[in-house]
Amino acid sequence: MRSCKDVSFLLSRSLDRPLPWTTRLSLRMHLMMCSFCRVARRQTLAMREILNVYGGTAVAGETEDQPGLPDEVRERIKDHVREAVKEQPDC
Amino acid sequence: MNPEEWVEAYGDALYRYALSRHVDPMSAQDLVQETFLAALKNQDRFSGKSSPQTWLIGILRNKMLDRIRKEIRLQSSADMDQTLSVVENEIFDASGRWRTGPQAWETDPHVVLERKEFREVLAKCLGSLPVSLRTAFMLREMDGLDAQEICKQLDISATNLWVMLHRARLRLRNCLGVNWFERKGEA
User: Chains A and B: how many Cβ contacts under 8 Å?
Assistant: First the structure.
C-alpha cells in the first residue's frame, strides 16, 4: 500500500494532471482506509477554492487589502502615456 | 477608449494584481506603467476576444515573470530540497505516515475569506514561500493557468512543476493550519 507521504504528492498532482487509472485506483483504496489523508484531501481542495476566490477579489478591489494606484502615480503614468502617444507616428 | 482612459479604468486593478502577487509597491507602480506603454505600442494585437482588463493583466504578468525568471533559475535545487525535507519530516515519519494527523478545517472557504485577519494570514503564508514555489503556485491557483502554460512561462519541466506545486501546497497547508485553522477560537 502507498504511504501517506506518496498519497500527499499524488493528491497534489491530481489537481494539475489526470492520474493513470491504476494510480487513481490505488489512491482511492488508500483514501478509503486513511481518514488523515481524506482530511488532507479536503484541505487541499479547500485551499484551491480559497486561492481562486482570493485571486479574483484582490484584483477587483472587493476588499480593502490592496489599495488602488496613488493619485500622483496615476498622473505620472498618464503623462508617460501621453508622451508615448505623441511619439507614435500614426497618431 | 483612449490610452489615458485605460489608466483611469484599469490602473487600480493592475496595481492590485501586482500587489496581491507580492510585488513591492514601487516595483508594482513601475510595472503598471510599463504595462500601459507596452499595451499602447501593441494595441493592434488586442483582438477583443477577452476583456481589456484580462489582456492588460496578461501583459503585466509577462512583465512580472520577466523580472523573476532569472531569480527562479538561480534558486538552487539544493536549497529547495532542504526546505522540502524539513517540512516533510515535520509532517511525515520515516515510513511516510502522518506524525500527527491533519485536523479537519471546519470553515467554509468563502466565509473565512470575508475575515480580514484570515486574508492577512493567507498573504503572510504565501509571502513565506520561496519565490519559485510562490510564483508557480499563484499562476496555477490564482490565475488558473494550466500546467503546460506555467512550464512554458517559467521554463521548467512538467516533473519539476508537479514537485514545486506539491511543496507549495504542503507548506501553505501547514502554515494556514498553524496560524489559523488549528488555532483555538480563530476558525
Answer: 162
Q: What is the pTM of this model?
A: 0.86
- DSSP states of B9-32: HHHHHHHHHHHHTT--HHHHHHHH
Q: Which of B63, B25, B24 is nearest to B41 (CA)?
A: B63
Whether the Cβ atoms of residue A65 and residue B123 lie closer than 8 Å to each other: yes
Question: Mind listing the domains of chain B with CATH numbers?
Answer: 3-73 (1.10.1740), 76-184 (1.10.10.10)
Map residue B178 onto helix, strand or coil: helix
ipTM surpasses 0.95: no
Supply the pLDDT for residue B3: 74
Which pLDDT does position B82 carry in this prediction? 61
Three-class secondary structure assignment of A14-80: HCCCCCCHHHHHHHHHHHHHCHHHHHHHHHHHHHHHHHHHHHHHHHHCCCCCCCCCCHHHHHHHHHH
Give the HSE-up count for residue B41: Cα atoms under 13 Å, Cβ half-sphere: 9
Per-residue pLDDT, B147: 93
**Interface probe, candidates A36, A77, A78, A82, chain B, greatest B C-beta count within 10 A:** A77
Q: What is the pLDDT of residues B66-103, one digit of tens each?
A: 888 877 766 645 555 666 667 788 889 999 999 988 88
Alpha carbon distances (Å) from B187 to B178, B181, B183: 11, 5, 7
Cβ within 8 Å, pair A17-B162: yes
